[in-house]
Amino acid sequence: MENEELIKLCSDKAQKWLTPAYDAETQAEVKRMLENPDKTELIEAFYKDLEFGTGGLRGIMGVGSNRMNIYTVGAATQGLSNYLNKCFAGKKDISVVVGHDCRNNSRLFAEISANIFSANGIKVYLFEDMRPTPEMSFAIRHLGCQSGIILTASHNPKEYNGYKAYWDDGAQVLAPHDKGIIDEVNKIASAADIKFEGNKELIQIIGKDIDDEYLRQVHTISIDPEVIKRQKDLKIVYTPIHGTGMMLIPQSLKLWGFENVHCVPEQMVKSGDFPTVVSPNPENAEALTLAIKLAKEIDADIVMASDPDADRVGMACKDDKGEWVLINGNQTCLIFLYYIIKNRIAMGKMKGNEFIVKTIVTTELIKSVADKNNIKMLDCYTGFKWIAREIRLREGKEQYIGGGEESYGFLAEDFVRDKDAVSACSLLAEICAWAKDQGKTLYDILMEIYVEYGFSKEVTVNVVKPGKSGADEIKAMMDNFRACPPKELGGSEVVLVKDYKTLKATDANGNVTDLDMPEPSNVLQFFTADGTKISVRPSGTEPKIKFYMEIKGEMGCPKCYAGANADAMEKVEAVKKSLGI
């Protein structure tokens, strides 16, 4: 599309925002953009509509159809209200939970959404202040609601906000509801279609009662309370990175019996500007700088951090040289599931119907742990809604005891249906106490897992391809991998290819079997004779293609980590060469 054409399209769209359905401040900002000789801002704000996708909304805050504001949030809520009223037409008291994080405008968007739901005859339970995403999931189930929303952009930069929709099981919406909601949202033509005038009678403020019940239930997942009593002085450093974790995580740790918790004071300040970090993402070492500094000062046992909506957890511990190291998402998930399985067995808590879940791109070492201990393990697509689906399908028949993914999300309980940093931080502290009780650190436990079950190195490589040409390149790369799959990777023969788009698996002899997955997905996996696993998928939200690499190795002793790691990194480079990246 030529620039002139694009400017005209955006200007025509912007003109529609100069009607009385939009507030004066919004109209003034749109006028300013239209009159500005530099049309960049106008184009960015109006060249497309912020899409309500399967994960809800996420975008930069500001005025315009491609921005997060009261009108785009309003359209999403009106569409969801229309869908709920259709879906539960015979039900006289449809209800929803509305929660939000610490971000700028999150409270405003939450209150606007509560008004819109209530204007559509839907009962609203609105949290009094910011709360963790998992507590919102819990509240849907606890209060018997049909749906719920959370206003959050997770760990995105401060300019962003987002909107996630949940169904009556407390999980993010899946088919057919995701598509049904999207269709209703797309029918909202303008602000005039949105019912902004709320019905106060239908809005109930919730807070402490839900907090207390949620924390009480989180405490029930503790496996070994006695070990906590012996190690109640475990030195824990925690940071909520200015977000919702501060509302409940220190409280949960106290309830579990930990008496020596040190919160990073500069980051216990609620702020949507995240002033002490470049990015509020606990995956990044930078976000843990202040926490590790405090840990060094007090000689702590563990550092833990939750992201702004407290659904993901990052951690650091001391290695065998006493240096602070970050534990990645695969390792964290592995430690959690190893502890849960080993200690439930040791405490005689297994009944024989337990299962765990991981995503297809998460480390296969988890499967080794599960197999060796005769525990059923299920693989699912990336995203916690798929883990929640596996729990729902087995409800009342099998017992879920834990599940997670490489992107730092873990869920230890079934009374919440999204990843949960509140329970994860509490359980992580227990694991650390259990290790210390044996004179070990979390790092020692990780080394023991590697010695017993084999070593594994996970590396994610992101190949960024911006713009329209980039999207075409990414498509061509996936097409090429499908048409001509690699015969070898890093010198080892490819023995199995799984294509989740066709839901077929093909071995080295050309034998084809079906993949049992709920729907197709644009993911390819290559498995080699030496145990290497490569997963390739285009990002759904960013202009990049992701390569998740898992390199297998052996570790003869806990001190052999450096050698095993160096060998694996050499293999990573060889695999990258084979893939041409």
Automatic annotation (TrEMBL):
Residues 507-550 form the Alpha-D-phosphohexomutase C-terminal domain. Its cofactor is Mg(2+). The keyword Magnesium applies. Keywords: Isomerase, Magnesium, Metal-binding, Phosphoprotein. One of its GO terms (biological process) is purine ribonucleoside salvage. Residues 51-190, 213-319, 328-453 form the Alpha-D-phosphohexomutase alpha/beta/alpha domain. It comes from the Bacteria. Belongs to the phosphohexose mutase family. This is Phospho-sugar mutase. It comes from Phocaeicola coprocola.
